[in-house]
Amino acid sequence: MSANDAPRAQQPSVTYDSAFLKACRREPVPHTPVWFMRQAGRSLPEYRKVREGIPMLESCMRPELVTEITLQPVRRHDVDAAIYFSDIVVPLKAIGIDLDIKPGVGPVVERPIRTRADLAQLRDLTPEDVSYVTEAIGLLTRELGATPLIGFAGAPFTLASYLVEGGPSRTYENAKAMMYGDPELWADLLDRLADITTAFLKVQIEAGASAVQLFDSWAGALAPVDYRRSVLPASAKVFDAVAGYGVPRIHFGVGTGELLGLMGEAGADVVGVDWRVPLDEAVRRVGPGKALQGNLDPTVLFASTEAVEAKTREVLDSATDLEGHIFNLGHGVMPSTDPDALTRLVEYVHTHSAR
Question: Are 271 and 293 in contact (CB under 8 A)?
Answer without folding.
Answer: yes
